[in-house]
User: What shape does this take?
Amino acid sequence: MKVKKIPQRMCVGCQEMKPKKELIRVVKNSEGEVSIDLTGKKPGRGAYICKNIDCLEKAIKTKRIERSFEMKISDEIYSRLKEELSNEE
Assistant: This one.
């Protein structure tokens, strides 16, 4: 029987490779709108972050999410991400 490969993605906060299911996806669509993608199926450019507030703080401080999307990210998105992470814990 063939072993199923688990998709791995890199967290923009801690730069560690983790299984895709353990991460939260932030997506930028073709119109340039940034949103949180809990299903992982929305079309567009994705950036992944651990379900850990420390990783989010690190990504905000180093502007890694902004660099991934090559655009400024609004504070509203960051506050929604913080809210989502606090709900996870």
About this structure: The first helix runs from residue 53 to 62. The CA atoms of residues 75 and 81 lie 10 Å apart.
